[in-house]
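Let us work through a complete example step by step.
Step 1: write down the sequence.
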Amino acid sequence: MAASVRGIVSQLVVEHVPHERELLENLQPLDDDGITRLFTRPEGDELLGFGVAEAANLITPVVWLVVNEFVTRGAGVAADGFFARIRARFSRTPARGAGVAADPMPLAPEQQKAVYQRVYGEARLRGLEDAAAKQLGEAVVARLAMGLSGQ
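Step 2: predict the structure and record it as C-alpha cells.
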C-alpha cells in the first residue's frame, strides 16, 4: 500500500522535530491535499491559528511541501526548483494546481544531493542546529529513496 504524505511526514517530524508534532495533530481533520493547501496559502487559518508567514520558521511545512512535491509530481520536480515554488508560496504568491504522479521514479544521486541540500538549507534558515538539519536532510532523502510503498 502506498504511503500518504501525512504518514511520511509524521514519521520524519516525530523523529527529527518532535516539538512540532502538535502542529500535525491539530491538522488531523484535514486530508493531505487540505494540509498542502493550508501550507501554501498566505491568509491565516483557524486550524493553524496563524498564517503561512508565521509558519515560515517551522520545519514541518518545509518537510510537508518537499514530500508532497515528490509524491504528486515525481522525483525530477522534487529536486529541480521545488524550493523556488515553496519560497514563492511563503511570499504570498498563489499556488498552482498540482498533477498527481502515479508512481514517481526513485531519486537519482544528483537529485538526492539537491533534495538534501535544500532541506538542510531550509532547516538551518529556520533555526535548526547544524547536526539536526543534516540528520533531517538525510532522513528526507532516505525516506523518498524508499519510494512511496516503503513504510
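Step 3: interpret the result. Confidence is low (pLDDT under 50) at residues 91-102.
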